[in-house]
Amino acid sequence: AVFYGRYLKKLSHKTQEAVGDMTKVAAESLSALRTVHAFNALAQEEKKFSERVAKVLTLGRKEAIASGIFFGSTGWSGNVTILGLLGYGSHHCWRLDELAAVHRLRWEWAQYAHTSIMRAIGAGTRVFEVLDRESLVPLHEGVELSPDRRGAIRFEHVHFEYPTRKDVKILKDFNLEVNVGETVAIVGESGGGKSSVHSLLLRYYDPNHGKVTFDGQGAHNTPKLLVDCAYSNNTDIRDFSATSWRRIIGVVPQDPVLFTGTIAENIAFGNPEATREEIEDAAREANCEFIWGMPDGFDTTIGRLSLSGGQRQRLAFARALLKKPAILALDEATSALDATSERRVNDAIEKILRSGQTTCLFVAHRLSTIARAERVIVMEGGRVVESGAYRELVAREGSRFRALMASQLSAVEQNTTTGDASEEAVEEYVEEFDEGRDEGVREVEVVEEKAKKY
Ligand SMILES: Nc1ncnc2c1ncn2[C@@H]1O[C@H](COP(=O)(O)OP(=O)(O)OP(=O)(O)O)[C@@H](O)[C@H]1O
């Protein structure tokens, strides 16, 4: 018992660690399931989890063998003793209930084993229920899309509600066309369904009515705001396999998720074959200069929250850019970033937008980001109510965009509850922005200069 105890103590410690590690991997992957899907990293995460499970299993087996030997031998000697006692007792014992007590002891053991088995079956049933669940969006069915395809994206009369909240219509006849290389910012009230547009684009869900299409033929000089969908050579994105469709999209979510591992591993998430050079290029492009200042650079191990909000966003940018995506879906962080981080994030956005290679559909909250888009669309009541260049919408008398910005301004800058801001205040806000924009462009040039030295 002493030797077994010592061995078990060591083994338990290791098992606890391994179980902790396994749970962490599962929790990280499950809580970031959208990111995992967006980067087609399901197989990678499954492999990571399987390795951890295998480790727990090996330790569990060792413990089972050790306890098998220990309890087997002690049980065997115990049984031999009891049998001996029974044999001996039957000669000497005249009271039947004494023998029955020994027998009852055996029976209780059998009951205990039975309860444990039943408990395991109960827990196992739930696990198998989860394992047997089929995704509503099949991952590998459909046409394989080549990763270098570029094309216009169209939302055609899309109606959508979440399966868990069928009574709330999120999108109602939503129509939008984004051409190749175009940058479109979606703005609107909080909770108006902007991020849901991304969810449909990435096929986390499919529309209830209408469709999202992709036209791999090239750019169109068609009207920007799609009213009448009279297109012929576009393909419903449901016809592509979800994995190959997601391969051409780079995603930067509102609250980017990091995984326990090195910075390089995080940038190469879903792209494990990427070379160090490619990783560094992506980091440079995304203004992640802070990595070079870290003690182990790209090999620095990070946890889920060990970087600041702005750094996390830029790292997520680098991760998205490494895919060299045809489409970039960016959901701007609503949480306040400090001024430097915000500028660095905006510079990174600016660089990508200026490249003209990538079609960008981004959900924007800050004026400084919105104004960087070629076209701004305003969402209200689940549909597009206004579309145009930033300057056009700002200049348009009584535009919804102006009203939206005015209420934002009054909420953010004047901190009032009235929701009204004067026209002058809006102009002032816009002027302030223009100064910031020029500064931003200069900043990008300085950074690019610096980047050459990395
Ligand atoms: N997974 C979900 N299941 C059910 N309802 C959801 C889900 N995700 C979002 N919603 C609801 O859908 C509506 C639109 O949400 P969405 O995130 O698209 O808005 P948003 O315009 O991006 O908001 P914000 O600007 O605050 O990020 C909200 O009312 C939200 O509560």
TrEMBL record:
Keywords: ATP-binding, Membrane, Nucleotide-binding, Signal, Transmembrane, Transmembrane helix, Transport. The keyword Transmembrane helix applies. Residues 1-91 form the ABC transmembrane type-1 domain. Residues 153-406 form the ABC transporter domain. PROSITE patterns: ABC_TM1F, ABC_TRANSPORTER_1, ABC_TRANSPORTER_2. GO terms for molecular function: ABC-type oligopeptide transporter activity; ATP binding; ATP hydrolysis activity. GO terms for cellular component: mitochondrial inner membrane. It is a multi-pass membrane protein. It is found in: Membrane. GO terms for biological process: oligopeptide export from mitochondrion. SUPFAM superfamilies: ABC transporter transmembrane region, P-loop containing nucleoside triphosphate hydrolases. Coiled coil: none annotated. The keyword Nucleotide-binding applies. PANTHER family: ATP-BINDING CASSETTE SUB-FAMILY B MEMBER 10, MITOCHONDRIAL, ATP-DEPENDENT PERMEASE MDL1, MITOCHONDRIAL. This is P-loop containing nucleoside triphosphate hydrolase protein. It comes from Leucocoprinus leucothites.
